[in-house]
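We close this part of the discussion by returning to an individual protein. The encoding preserves chain order, so positions in sequence and tokens coincide. The sequence in question and its structure tokens are set out directly beneath this paragraph:

===
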Amino acid sequence: MFRQLVCLYQQGLRQLSSRTVTSSASRPMENSVKQKQKLFQEDNGLPVHLKGGTRDALLYRVTMTLTVFGAAFVVYELFSAAMPRKPH
């Protein structure tokens, strides 16, 4: 029983090691650099970090919210460390 398991394990390793590794993509991707350049260079009054659309706006708002709450928490912790509670 143990010998059969070892044999199966070795066969699996042999098959895995004999597979060829390719670096080419399975499907070709289209080049969208020109479209992105056109989108980001048009003058529509938006800052560049928001020109990507809804995802960029959402990511910006989440980042700013976390930054504000993080800064407030740091200030709170600094005050609590500077003025420790007195034992009763």
Summary: The chain has a mean pLDDT of 84. The chain has three helices and no strands. Residues 54-82 form the longest helix (29 residues). The CA atoms of residues 7 and 13 lie 10 Å apart.
